[in-house]
Amino acid sequence: MKNNLNIFNDPSLTFRAIQKIDFLVQKEAKRSRLFQGICNILNENRNHYYFWLQRYDKSDKFDIFFDAELEKKIKPTLKNTVPDNILACTQNALTQPGVYTRSYSSLLCTKCPLSSFCKNRISVSVQLRCHAQLYGVLSISIPRKHCFETEKQDILIGIANDISVRIYNNQLEKDCRKHRNWYTNTSNLLHERTKELSFFYSFSRLSETPNLSLEEIIQGTIQLIPSSFQYSEIAKARILLDGKTFTSPHFKESAWKLSRPISGLNKKNNNVEIFYIEEKPEFKIRPFLKEEESLLEAIAERLGKIIQRKQAEIALTKSEQRFRNLVYNSMTGISIIQDNQVVYQNPAQEKLFGPLPRSAKFVSFDEIHPEDLSKVKKFYQQLTDKNFHQHLDIDFRIYRQAKNSISNDLVWIFCRVIVIEYNANNAFLLNSMDITHTKELEHLLVLQDKMTSLGRVAAGIAHEIRNPLSGINIYLKTLEKVYNRNMSKDKIKTILDQIHTASNKIESVIKRVLDFSKPGEPKLISMDINQPVEEAINLSAVTLRKKSIRLSINLSLNLPKSYIEPQLIEQVVLNLINNAVEAMEVSDKLKKIEISSFTENSFVCVKVGDSGTGISQKDINHIFEPFYTTKTNSSGIGLSICHRIISDHNGTIEVSEGQLSGAEFCIKLPFSKGLR
Length: 676
Hints:
- This protein is an alpha+beta fold.
- It folds into five domains: 11-176, Beta-Lactamase (2-Layer Sandwich); 209-312, no CATH class; 333-433, PAS domain (Beta-Lactamase, 2-Layer Sandwich), CATH 3.30.450; 441-517, Signal transduction histidine kinase, dimerisation/phosphotransfer (DHp) domain (Helix Hairpins, Orthogonal Bundle), CATH 1.10.287.130; 525-670, Histidine kinase-like ATPase, C-terminal domain (Heat Shock Protein 90, 2-Layer Sandwich), CATH 3.30.565.
- The chain contains 16 helices and 21 strands.
- It is elongated, with a radius of gyration of 62 Å.
């Protein structure tokens, strides 16, 4: 037989239930098991009472909790009868504060899973609420015949309030512990991040300190690394770079090691390493935090970039120094002109134009040779032109006073100017050379060439005159013998005629030389060049037939007229035909000469080609020189005269290998009189 006492009748039972609930609240973290346990505690001495709880969660849903005995009876009907798990008594209790009392209603309570137990009974409900925080609803069912006095209501409210306060305090304590843990962890993390930030700040300042060598930066980094780790007092660092080792003070190796390769370096064994030289209890899990692993990776990456930058700066400094040495010691004068001022010059340039400061006008007009003055002024004018983006070359003469002398020497200067970028702005790079010695050598070469030509002329004249002069001497001796022997006048006359012939030959040679050295101005008229060409062909026709030479003629019709002297052009073409005949004299192959005329650009052209032996490469550059010849009995003046005639017509004459495998001469004359 059950005891009639319950928590409403016995204060000790009430106190004991509150104690058990308090202990359960402190012990149980899961809310569902907590509410189930509260139901079991309240129903331990139920007698004719039934307790149940509806738990409210943050998703606005309710769960129903009964003691084990009552739940076993109503569980099969619970899901189908209460779709939202909210009992009618609970729903009404939420609408008003305090204790909610309700009698069984066959109209409203038939769907309630407790309806079979609540007939002729009264349900009393009270909210579990603390500081506006709703935890659920505590309900009790009592027989209708029992009166639920105010004292019992106060006990029920007290139990509900105590449960709510206990749950609230427990939750508050959990939240406090959670926040304390969060604060502690955050504080620790913040402390570690502060150490990391302090390291990177010091590391950045170290790497940006001017005039520090790479080894000094690495050694400074070694001093900073341990302070950024969790156990800085037992941390030691080491950096391995290109076979060199850098360590922090009192360094020694240990089993607690973290290593990362320095990024960006090709060689192996370039690492940043950190050691803990003493053991900590935490080392059994892992000696280094994940954040510390990331930190060392960041240090290795940043250090790699600094090493690469420092190595590039060293290479650049060496390259700049080499370049400066090259410029400074260059024998060529080098200067930079910006904003109309010379901002740099090497010693060679200073030697040419004087020390700084100087304007862009690097030489005084008074020092320039009068013949070069206009050229230099034009040069300066082009430099000041804003559209100037190319390069300029100029050579000119200046007067310089020699050391220990009161006279001025004439110096040749060659200058080249190009546009460059200097200190992020446009500038001019001026290169200058003293070419006086080069000009003197050129002058000597010209004199030597003239002397060589004079030697050829003398040799040619001597060769031309020697034969007839020897004949004259022979004839004079013969004439002397004839005179001494009183021979006939006819014999004497014959000898005199021969002397006269030889004398004419000498006079002819001298005349040709004089004609070449002092040619007359051609008398030009406008006419078709084909006319003198045809005259030359007609004059040589008989010779060509006798020599069995085939002539091919291809003269274009309606050629533009040119300003020419017909007799001189005829002489040139006739000379070229005669040279072609002589070139094929000993040839066994088909003898052929081709003559053609045509237009090319603004020129009228005449070509004369043959199937002879051609001209060797070593002779082709000299054949137009006076008295240069490859023939046995030739003065070497013919082609020189042809060249002079064509030049006087403002034209050109060139020689090359023709289609007939022999020499091919091409004459080009402009359409109208004037310069080419």
